[in-house]
């Protein structure tokens, strides 16, 4: 794939997701939290992340293994999919049983267990969609995968908007409605994705083959371990908040953390889209021994511009943005937000260099770095959460994500013998300095209102990107030359 083809596919994917997902996260999801309250949503958020901790049992690394494997060996699609679908159904049963009993052991009861079990179904459907999409992406059908990536959210937005603001019921919005809507939306999306995969695989028939199961599980185990470790250091914060703090304080602080996390989550979804394209692309290019440096440089430049710009602007206007989103709890949310939003930068980098190492099959090194990150995360959380509550978890998250990004960056460059001079460090530093200065001056001397200020700062950021040649103008012009 040419560099410009990569950019065009990325732009299409970004366009659809920017169109849909911010409204879901900042509009509907936020609207649900306001409707049900911070404590109820905090319980939902903590339980949701609790179910994620066991996703190794649900997926066992099959999605990432399959993405890399089919990208390099497209002829195996028809042969593998029947067996893997059967295996995923078996894993789903094991996953649901384990999560239920783990919840009982941790002291969940009554309504908490009911909510937990519905979330296990939600996680299964989500995992099924991701597996089916991994086949679509591995075939380099990026436009089709782009549509599938937003279909579930589009359905959820439609249904939840009617329930929240359609005046079709006099009952207050219940958190269980939120779960039911997600289950229905995921189910419809899974059926659509399955029909697309069937059309490419020609025929799918569930098959029971223990030898095949053992072979696939053995090959996917390193991916499974990596997924588990990444979930642990990425999602355990809210669970630890809810469990380490007593009574309703834990659920409330988890809700505060969720409030501060929401904007980061929306932006990380955009960064994650790079990995969706990069994993199969890197896998195929590495197998064919193609030059990956231009793709790395393009992905890094765009993600650096995106993550740094978003972080600086949201940090500068944090009080205005959060007071608009959460008028009653924005002061507490700001204290957490200042440590969470910078996580966007290291997280964005892991979607390049972690994905590159995954495509290269360097799972052992990735698992070692992830294990180190877990140790760092848990130690800081145990130390700071009892003292600083949700803010302590945010500090732990920032420290962890920065550590893992630096380790993956160094390992990827050394292992694949990529010159460190590949990336435009000086241009990045100059751009960052100019952006910080111009944003500071804008906040101090101009009173244009939040929207106009953000738009102005965004325009200035683009100008600085061109001036510093962080984003070369010649390259942008060449994108429109399709010859």
What low-confidence regions span 5 or more consecutive residues with pLDDT below 50? Answer: none
Sequence of secondary-structure elements: HHHHHHHHHHHHHHHHHHH
* Share of β-strand residues: under 5%
Class inferred from helices and paired strands: mainly alpha
Average pLDDT for all residues: 83
General form: globular
| Total E-strand runs | 0
Distance between the termini: 14 Å
Q: Radius of gyration in whole Å, from Cα? A: 22 Å
**Fraction of helical residues:** over 70%
Tally the helices: 19
User: What is the domain total for the residues?
Assistant: 2
Sheet with the most strands, sense and barrel status: none
Explain how this protein is built:
It is a single chain. The protein is mostly helical. The protein is 84% helix and 0% strand. The chain has 19 helices and no strands. It has helices at 3-36, 38-52, 55-59, 62-72, 77-105, 111-138, 142-165, 175-201, 210-244, 247-287, 293-316, 318-325, 330-340, 344-360, 363-388, 390-415, 425-445, 450-467, 473-478. Helix 1 (3-36) packs parallel to helix 7 (142-165), helix 9 runs antiparallel to helix 16 (390-415) and helix 14 runs parallel beside helix 16 (390-415). The longest helix has 41 residues, at 247-287. It is globular and about 70 Å long.
């Amino acid at each position: 794939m040419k560099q410009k083809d990569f950019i065009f596919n990325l732009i299409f994917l970004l366009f659809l997701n920017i169109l849909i997902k911010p409204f879901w996260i900042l509009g509907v999801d936020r609207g649900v939290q306001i409707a049900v309250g911070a404590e109820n949503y905090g319980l939902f958020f903590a339980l949701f992340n609790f179910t994620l901790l066991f996703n190794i049992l649900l997926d066992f690394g099959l999605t990432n293994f399959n993405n890399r494997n089919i990208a390099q060996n497209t002829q195996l699609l028809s042969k593998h999919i029947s067996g893997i679908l059967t295996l995923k159904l078996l894993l789903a049963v094991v996953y649901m049983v384990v999560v239920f009993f783990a919840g009982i052991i941790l002291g969940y009861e009554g309504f908490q267990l009911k909510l937990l079990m519905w979330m296990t179904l939600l996680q299964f459907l989500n995992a099924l969609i991701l597996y089916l999409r991994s086949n679509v992406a591995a075939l380099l059908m990026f436009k089709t995968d782009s549509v599938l990536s937003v279909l579930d959210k589009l359905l959820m937005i439609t249904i939840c908007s009617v329930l929240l603001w359609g005046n079709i019921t006099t009952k207050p919005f219940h958190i269980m409605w939120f779960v039911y809507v997600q289950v229905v939306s995921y189910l419809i999306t899974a059926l659509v994705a399955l029909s697309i995969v069937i059309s490419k695989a020609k025929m799918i028939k569930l098959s029971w083959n223990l030898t095949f199961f053992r072979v696939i599980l053995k090959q996917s185990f390193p991916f499974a371990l990596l997924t588990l470790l990444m979930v642990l250091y990425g999602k355990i914060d809210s669970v630890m908040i809810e469990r380490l703090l007593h009574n309703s304080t834990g659920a409330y602080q988890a809700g505060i953390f969720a409030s501060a996390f929401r904007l980061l989550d929306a932006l990380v979804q955009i960064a994650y889209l790079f990995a969706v394209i990069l994993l199969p692309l890197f896998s195929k290019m590495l197998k064919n021994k193609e030059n990956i440096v231009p793709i790395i440089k393009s992905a890094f430049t765009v993600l650096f511009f995106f993550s740094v710009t978003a972080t600086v602007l949201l940090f500068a206007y944090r009080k205005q943005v959060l007071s608009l989103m959460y008028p009653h709890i924005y002061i507490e949310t700001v204290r957490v937000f200042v440590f969470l939003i910078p996580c966007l930068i290291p997280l964005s980098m892991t979607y390049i260099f972690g994905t590159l190492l995954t495509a290269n099959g360097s799972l052992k090194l990735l698992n070692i770095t992830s294990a180190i990150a877990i140790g760092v995360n848990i130690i800081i959380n145990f130390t700071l959460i009892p003292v600083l509550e949700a803010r302590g978890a945010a500090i732990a998250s920032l420290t962890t994500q920065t550590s893992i990004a630096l380790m993956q960056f160094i390992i990827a460059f050394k292992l694949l013998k990529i010159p460190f001079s590949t990336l435009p460090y000086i241009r990045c530093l100059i751009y960052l300095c100019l952006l910080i200065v111009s944003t500071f001056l804008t906040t101090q001397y101009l009173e244009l209102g939040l929207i106009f200020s953000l738009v102005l700062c965004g325009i200035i950021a683009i100008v600085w990107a061109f001036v510093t040649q962080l984003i070369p103008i010649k390259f942008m012009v060449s994108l429109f030359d399709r010859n």
